[in-house]
Amino acid sequence: CLSDADKITRKRGLDRLFDHLQSQNLGDAQQVRQALDILLPHCAVLLGDAAERSRELAVEILSLLLFKAENNNELLPPVMDAIKDRYFPTSVEPTEEIRLLVVQFLCKIVKQMPSAVESCADSILQVLGACCNDSFPDVKKNSAVALQHIANTSPATCSGVAKSLVKPLTSVLQHQQQKVRVEGLKALSAVTIANPSATFEDAFAVISKLSFDRSPQVRSALLATVSVWMKNLSESSIDPAPAPRLLPLLFQGLADELPDVKSAAVSAVLELGNNSMEGKMIDDEPERTLADADVPAPLEGRPPAAARAVVRSLLEPMVNLLLGGISDWLVETRLRSCNALLCLCALAEGSIISHITGIAKGVAHGLVDDDEQVRSRCKDISHLIGKLVPLPDTLSVVLKNSPRTGGESAEGWLKLARGASESASQLDAVAALPMALELPSVDAWLVGPGLGDVIGIVGSCISASSQKVSSLAGDAYNASARLGALADGTAFNQQGEQLMGL
Question: Can you tell me the distance from the alpha carbon of 13 to that of 20, in angstroms, rounded to the nearest whole number?
C-alpha cells in the first residue's frame, strides 16, 4: 500500500507502519537492516508525496530505523540522494515543520555517523547550505549547527566547499533572531578555519559589521570568534595578514556599553599572548610603563607581557583606525573609538610616543566634541599621555601643531596639554617648564577657555619646578603676571591665585 495510487491509502499504510515500528523492540540490528532495505526505496519516493502527513512519516521512519540498522553506512548515500533531490539547490518542501524535521535528521546523521558523512559529504553540505537560506528560523539555526559540527570535527570534509558556504551562512547572520545569528556566527567561524585562504576575506567582511549588533550575545560570540581566529589562522596563508584587521574588533568589545561584553573582550585580550598568530614576542618593553592602579577599566591591572607585545606590534594600524572613528559623525562610534583608544594606550604604554602626533591630534579634536562623554574619555586619554609620554614631547607637538590663531582647534590642543601636565611626573614638569612658559606669548590662546588651560599648564610646571630651576624664575614670574593681568577677578581667584603665589 505504500506505492498505492490513492494518497489516502498510502497515508494510512504509513501511519500503521510507523505505529507498529514504534511498538517493536528494534534491538536486532540485522532485522532492522532487512526492514530498511525494503522500506528505503518507498520512503525515498514518499519524501515527495502529495500528502503532507505521508512526507512527514517517511522522514520519521527513516530517522527511526537508520541509526539502529547494521552496516548503516552503506544506506546513507541513497538516503542523501533522496533528500538532495528535494532540497537542493532550493527546497521544494512547502511545510516548515517537515523542512525542520529533515534538517534535524541531518544533524543527527552528522553527529552519530561521522565516518559515513565523508562518503556523501558533498550532498550533506549542499543540502545544509541550501537550508541556511530557508525562511524558517529553526531550519536556519539547525543547519548552521550541523555545519559547525562538521567543520569542527572534520575540517577536511568541508574544506573544498567552504567558500560556497560563506554566502548561505551570511543569510543566517542576517536573521532578526539573535539565537539564529549566534549559531550562524559559530558556524562561519568553524568553516573559515577549515579553509582560511578561500574564505577569510568574505567571512571577515561579514563579521566586521557585528561589533554594533543589537544583541549582546552576538557581540560576545563575535569576540570568541576573533579570539579563535587569532589563534588558528596562519598569517602565511592570508594576504594581507588578518591580525591587524581582527584586533580592532577586540578593542571595540572593550569599549562596549554592556559589562558582559566588556568582560568577554578583556578575556580575549588577555589571551592575546597565547593566541597571537605566530605566538612570538616582539621588541622590548618600552621605557615608560603603567602601574596596575593606573590601568583604566575595563582592564584590571597591567595585562600580561605577551598581550602587550602583540598590541605593540600592531600599534600603527590600530591607531589609524581608531583616530578615524573619533571624527565619525555618529556619537556612538566616536565614544567607542575613544574608549578603545584609551585601552590601546594602556596596552601599548610608552610605545605610543612613536605615534604621539596623530594620537594628540585625534584627542585634541575629541576634547572639544559636542558630546560630554566623548570629551570626558578624551580627557582620560590626555592624563594617560601625561604618564606615558615625556611632557616636553607632548608640549612640543602642541606648539608645532596648534593653530596660533586661536579658535576651537587651539582650544582642543591646549586642553590636551593641560590634561597631560596634570598627570605628568615632577621630573617631566621641570623639563617642560621652558616650553610651558612659551604658551602665554600667544595672545590668541589667552581668551575664553584657553586662558584657564594655559594657567593650568603653566601652574603645573611652575609648581613642580619651584625652588628647582632658579634660572627660569624671572620668566616664570613674567608669564604668571601676564596671565594674572589677563584673567578677570573670578577666573583669577579660581585658577590664578595659586599660580601667582608660586
Answer: 11
350 within 8 A of 390, measured Cβ to Cβ: no
Contact 345, 352 (CB under 8 A): yes
Please provide the DSSP assignment of 279-321 as one string.
----SPPPS----GGGSPTTS-SPPPHHHHHHHHHTHHHHHHH
Helix extents (H) in 195-239: 196-207, 216-232
Does residue 335 carry a pLDDT above 90?
yes
CA-nearest of 93, 85, 83 to 63 is: 83
**What rounded mean pLDDT belongs to the chain?**
87
Answer with the residue of higher pLDDT: 497 or 165.
165
Classified as helix, coil or strand, 200 is: helix
**What residues contact residue 382 under an 8 Å CB cut-off, 6+ apart?**
363, 367, 415, 416, 418, 419, 420, 423
**Over 315-358, what HEC string results?**
HHHHHHHHHHHHCCCCHHHHHHHHHHHHHHHHHHHHHHHHHHHH
Q: In this structure, are residues 72 and 114 in contact, taking their beta carbons and an 8 Å threshold?
A: no
C-alpha–C-alpha distance, residues 310 and 296, integer Å: 19
Calculate the alpha carbon distances from 261 to 164, 218, 228, 265, 325 in Å: 31, 9, 16, 6, 20
- Taking residue 313's Cβ as centre, other Cβ atoms within 10 Å add up to 20
Which H or E element spans position 410? helix 407-423
Terminal C-alpha separation, the chain: 106
Distance (Å, rounded) from C-alpha 348 to C-alpha 286? 8
Phi, psi of 29 (to 5 degrees): -65, -30
- pTM: predicted TM-score of the whole model, two decimal places: 0.83
Burial code (b: 16+ CB inside 10 Å, e: under 16) for 15-35 equals eebbeebeeeeeeeeeebbeb
Roughly what angle, to the nearest 10 degrees, separates helices 121-131 and 137-153? Answer: 150
Mention every residue, 6+ apart, whose C-beta is less than 8 A from residue 481: 500
> Hey, what's the cell of 277?
598568530
**CA nearest neighbour of 388 among 419, 361, 412:** 419
Residue 475 has pLDDT above 80, yes or no: no
